[in-house]
């Protein structure tokens, strides 16, 4: 690893830095989507409580993506997509 962390991402990140919403139950909260890859997104949100294990992320284009919390450091967290771009779930039936 030559003194640096190995890149564990399966796909390239694309900078977005756009407004979004995280929906926890029926309450949408404002967030900022920093970047997106095929498998997930890096998000910043000032939430009143911890990010739950699963939630819906509303992208800047209005599209809703079902997500799982991948990691969290303070107000920044990783959202792993549980569906594809057409809304089909990756979850096992």
Largest sheet descriptor: 6 strands, antiparallel, barrel
| Overall pLDDT level | 84
Choose one word for the global shape.
globular
Q: Note the beta-strand portion.
A: over 45%
Strand numbers in spatial order across the main sheet: 1-2-3-6-5-4
Series of secondary-structure elements, N-terminal to C-terminal: EEEEEE
What helical percentage do the residues reach?
Answer: under 10%
Please report the number of helical segments.
0
> Helix/strand-derived class?
mainly beta
Report the C-alpha radius of gyration, rounded.
Answer: 13 Å
Give a description of the structure.
- The chain has 93 residues and is mostly beta strands.
- The chain has a domain of 45 residues.
- 0% of the residues lie in helices and 51% in strands.
- It is built from no helices and 6 strands.
- The protein has a 6-stranded antiparallel β-barrel with strand order 1-2-3-6-5-4.
- The protein starts with 13 loop residues before the first strand and ends in a 12-residue tail after the last strand.
- The N terminus is likely disordered.
Task: Itemize the secondary structure elements and their pairings.
Blueprint: E1 14-24, E2 27-36, E3 40-44, E4 54-58, E5 64-73, E6 76-81
Antiparallel strand pairs: 1-2, 1-4, 2-3, 3-6, 4-5, 5-6
């Amino acid at each position: 690893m030559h003194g640096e962390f190995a890149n564990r991402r399966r796909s390239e990140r694309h900078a977005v830095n756009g407004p979004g919403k995280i929906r926890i139950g029926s309450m949408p909260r404002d967030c900022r989507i920093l970047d997106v890859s095929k498998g997930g997104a890096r998000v910043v949100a000032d939430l009143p409580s911890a990010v739950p294990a699963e939630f819906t992320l509303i992208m800047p284009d209005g599209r809703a993506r079902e997500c799982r919390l991948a990691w969290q450091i303070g107000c920044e967290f990783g959202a792993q997509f549980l569906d594809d771009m057409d809304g089909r779930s990756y979850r096992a039936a």
